[in-house]
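Weekend entry, working from home. Most of the wet-lab plans are on hold until the incubator is repaired, so I used the time to fold the two sequences that have been sitting in the queue since the last round of cloning. Logging both here for the record. First:
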Amino acid sequence: MLLHMYKVPEALFITVTVITVLFALAKTNSGKTGRIIMLSGIGLGLTLALLRAVTHEFPAVFFPDRKAVPDTQINLILWYIAMGILIPLHVLIAVFSREKGSKAGKLAVSVLSGLLSADLLAYKAWSVIWSPRDFEMGDNGILSDVFLLRLAGWLIGLILLAVYVRFLYKCCMRLSEDRVLWNDTEGNRQCSGHWVLRLTAALMTFFLFFLLYGMVLQQWTVKTRPGWIPELLPSLNAETFLKFTVRNNASAGGPLFPGWKWYMAGNHARGGYLENGVLMLLLCAVMAMIPPAVLFLRSLRLRDIWRNAAQKRRLRSDNRHNRRWSAIVLVSLVCVMLCLTVVYEICNRPPPVPEGETYSIIYTDENGAEHEISATDVKDYDASRIEVRIPVNQVDDYNLHAFEMNRSGSPNKAPRVRWIVIRKPNSAAYGVGLDACDVCGSAGYYQRGDTVVCKRCDVVMNTNTIGLAGGCNPIPLAFRVEGGCVVIAMEDLMAGEKEFK
């Protein structure tokens, strides 16, 4: 549940924030026409996102000559389109998005904003739209608690963003439409609220261009840059730029603000832009707070002259609503940041690794005499005469027990094999299997409370099915109980080594 609660804001927060501010600016600049243009852009973006989700799910239908949808190539194209839109959009916002600006310039701002909205939604929204398709994992159906909890987390993430977008838009529109806010305490007009939207939109378009350029630079570092694409900022050192925009600052020169390092510690494996994703989201959140903050401050006192008590109550009521809307935006932003830091840390905390327990390796010679040998000696004997024995009293406590064997004697060289043993609840039977499965590979399993959980997909195993093939269950391992021991043939363990290469 928590995993999908933070994935939705992580994917869509910057996108919906930029679109909301540009929507308010287009509505302020061009009225109903701007609103229609933005709605058309959003509709086009959602259509493209849905089409992209379908092509990703069924690549053989749309890309018969490829094994998978070329996501990286699609992303690069969308980044280049967005960067081409952002440059003129940033200039037009600065020049024309004022109260007395040219109508043609304002209309151009609306058109470019609609195109940028379509591009951003096509880039990010498809993965969120198709997320429920990936909820059903292992043998869990759509009515299982696993699926329903993940669906609940996904919905909570969407609801949180919907509340945030709704009230951010209300704050932006109130700033531009409520002229009373820009009066002095004696009711004299000082200015208009257009400057707030212009400032926020200009900062966000520059920020988005900055971020997309960093993402393109990252691609250039891992593959040959096409010759027809110029370096947009040749005077800027690419390595320094990447450290700020897309790489892990905790390992590339220190944290950029206090408390950053604790979050980044242990998360180096995420790779690329996602390593610094929260930093970019935080910068976007700071810019998104400009309209609510200005609205809150302008609503602290009455800014018009009233002729009777009813008008005074109306002014006070409007100010209360303004402050409440601003507070809701702030609370929503705090919840989003908590999802992307605290919830992320909880979900990505490394699962406990079961300690490899002791066992005996017994070789039976031609005369029937038994000899205990070490794992490194196995190669010197006939494997068909070797067994691994685990005392029953060592594994009869209904807990998960993990074992490991490395015949090479070196931790960095194969062959190496891991297996697990657990006594099934309310039974004298045991579940024995490799610490791997056909679905998630060699990720392995760990015990959480009274349950066994896959480290990779977080699916909870039905303990009674451990030792049976199928789904995310451990790959079965043949065994027998004999002489007070769980006995496993060495040949079976050696055959399982391929799962861990």
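Second, folded right after the first finished:
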Amino acid sequence: MKSTRSIRVTTFLSIGIVLVATIAWAGLGHVSGSLKRVDAFGGLKSRPEKPSTAINYLLVGSDTREGLTAAERKLLRVGSTKSAAGKRSDTMLLVHISKARDKAVIISLPRDTLATIPSYISSAGKSVPSVRAKLNAAFAWGGAPLLIQTIESMSNLRIDHYVEINFAGFAHMVDALGGIEVCTKRDINDSNSHLTLAAGVHTLDGIEALKYVRTRDFDGMGDLGRMQRQQQFMSSVMRKATSSGVLLNPIKLLNFFNAAMATVQTDSALNGNDLITLAKQMRNLSASKVRTLTVPLSSTNYSVEGLGSTVVWDPILSAELFQRLINDQAVIDEVTPSPSASSSVKAAPVIVDKFKTRTALENPCGALK
């Protein structure tokens, strides 16, 4: 892999899901389910300081099959819950919502990131010393608390809330939105994901969408191609979730939120009142003010004995990025050039985007170059 822009970016945990869910709760008053809880911050010590009232969410996509029907597992060819015991964090996103609640930044954390996993107590009660491993190992070994501790130690950014979603949650929420439009410029026939699509524009239901974001073996580009498709799909989800056809349709909102409630797990401190308050505060947040990016990388193929190929964060750029989030500063800069000697007219500001961000307004077909 050669492009730092092409590392895995999740699709089904976009900020659009959070926004619509909170709006649904605030507007409809109640739903048929209740949030599932996980002790995400249990036992964490020496956590980073929090200098502002901005909010940081850690959103995790788990590959657990729990919640999928037998028919859905058959369509996906993913096997039963027993055949895939345990769960792995296939996707990790940090979502930073500004203290003014008018901007959001979504940062993808590659699962193969080379990380130092802090010492922890195993499920068998044994003390395990710190060790270098891939980032998703923290989730596999110690669940949400160990993953949060690892990310906080690497970024020095304090995580306020934790949200986890599985295969079933992704598929059911896509269905609740009425499907998501994708555009492929070449035929897809992937025998591993069992996805077949002709070139062109398609509206995918939940199961087909899950196949789409998992497929990687049809074009010879492997993870590189899959990551590009996932980024484009993420933008499509954001646009659909915040479209008038969804936001002004109480039935769709209720179905969407009930689908989320049935499969999403959150930290024990996140409650309905928090979501209602957040929804009211974020009225001014539009898709154009949501930026997505991958944490800056210095290597996408760093070999480590016993681990294989890993991804390494750029020590300078990643540190700057997280410091900006800690201070609730913008991740892009606007530089106003000085007027030339022959003109007193100010030139238009120049956008400096050293972190290579994108906005959620990106068109899925236009984005495929």
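Plan for Monday: verify the second prediction. Residues 1-32, 80-85 have pLDDT under 50 and may be disordered.
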